Amino acid sequence: MANFSPEILFLSFVVSTAILYMINNRRRSLPNSPSLPSPPNKLPIIGHLHLFYKERKPHKSFAKLAEKLGPIFYIQLGRVPAVVVSSKELAKQVLKTHDQVFASRPSILSAKYVSVGPADVTFSPNGPYWRQARKICVTELLSPKRVNSFKVVLDEEVNRFMSRVKARCGLETDMSDLIFAFCTDFFCLAAFGVRFMEDEDEGQKSKYLASVFIEVEELLTGFYYGDFFSEWVWPGWLTGYTPRVIKGSRNLLNAVDEIFDKTSKRKQPLGTGAFLLHGNEDFIDVLRRVQKSDDLDVPLTDDNLMAIVSDMFVAGVDPSTATLEWIMTDLARHPRVMKKAQEEVRSVVTASGSGRVEENHIHQLKYMKAVIKESMRLHPVNLLIPRESSDKCTLEGYEIPAKTRIFVNNHAIGRDPKLFTNPHDFIPERFQQEEDIKDFKDKDFRFMPFGGGRRGCPGYGFGSITVQWAVAGLLYHFDWALPRGVGPSDVDLQEVFGLAARKRVPLVLVPTGNKGYDFKS
Ligand code: HEM
């Protein structure tokens, strides 16, 4: 920005606006689908952006529009034609029936910087590179066998998390902070073989990384002016978006570099303070091995390797943190449910005589599973699931051209009164059937905590065991209360509209040790 005088900026704004206006009027989007419902008040150049840009909660604005326009409608976001779907039937069509057509992500400016190309799994367009990266991710990094190999480390990290909570007993505690530290350390160990925070003095570092993540995740939603006029460079600079993206991606890559530095120390044979994964490979070890194999369709460069491992780290930490944050928020606001879930965990663990939660207890915790599932329904980490069509396709009789951005409104579908009675209430009992709690997905597409189809979350096994083990530990060892003077309805429930929808205001709770179920490190 410093290189441009305000006069030049203003002049280029006026000239470009005029050109854009002319082009916009010449080129109509979605020419083959004039009958798609669409909100009125489409303005020149910005299209429908003014309808939701100020509030910056597009999932809610789109839900309100769906009430008037129906479950499928078209909106023009600057230069980007987009379609929003808000019913389980349409979600199924996008994520399952026409999965192949909608297997790309929107191409957004921030992904080019943050995901180095993009060369990661999350943002790479559907093509040979993404297919290979995704295959490595599913068969090597996140396979059931690999997830199994990390369980011993997860057990240790849950214990470290419990000791941190124990040290805060009786005190108002920023649980968002402790949850983030737990997830970061565990995923750092899995990805890089080292913890992010080796000791408690490193708390500031964790807070800093959390702020970098939140910033990057917000930028990666692709809901900024710069992304709606991506053929032109100036809106990104003029609105300050491009400098923000550059700064955010630099901060993230610096943080990842710092962890890499630690890793290279670990690789030295006589390194001290090393934390070896019980002889297991971490993600970098695996990727280096795969890089050398001769059956790769596309060569894997060092930069690609870096992009994939950073992606696993970011895509793993924030959704797991957000999910845990919301589960504890929902439980703290609903003491009846908290008590019932605690009774279940305590009875299962007590019957085993182990005095601590172990992996084999988890499958017995059916009510806890229902609690987690209900919290995921109310607070999906992807409020809008973003896709892009690679070819033309028909949805509900409407023709959707190639290169249309599609948003599956996960937030609206999960709270649809036609699908759930009292949809805004936290009622885990709605998932009491054996069939309901066999996993955290919904076969009817009524809510999609892990997305779906070939672009669905490959970290399902990894994320779900992490969340369950941690919640079981927190429920077994501690009693929980909101801070003095704070009632259930005072808890701020706003989310950050980011790639993972974390809680906007940190969750503060007061843990208390329970004598019968004390945590002994
Ligand atoms: C509770 C934890 C988690 C939740 C709720 C979650 C949720 C999601 C969702 C909703 C998507 C988008 C899916 C779609 O577009 O259909 C996604 C994608 C993804 N997730 Fe997860 N996730 C979790 C944990 C993880 C973990 C632990 C990892 C890896 C270590 C991971 C890696 C990824 C990747 C790489 C993608 C992009 C996949 C692609 O575009 O091909 N996730 N996740």
From TrEMBL:
Pathways involved: Secondary metabolite biosynthesis; terpenoid biosynthesis
TM regions (residue ranges): none
InterPro entries reported in the protein's UniProt record: Cyt_P450, Cyt_P450_CS, Cyt_P450_E_grp-I, Cyt_P450_sf
Key words, A-Z: Heme, Iron, Metal-binding, Monooxygenase, Oxidoreductase
Cofactor or coenzyme needed: heme
Domain of life per record: Eukaryota
SUPFAM superfamilies recorded: Cytochrome P450
CDD domains reported for this sequence: CYP71-like
GO molecular function: heme binding; iron ion binding; monooxygenase activity; oxidoreductase activity; oxidoreductase activity, acting on paired donors, with incorporation or reduction of molecular oxygen
Family listed: Belongs to the cytochrome P450 family.
Protein name as it appears in the record: Cytochrome P450
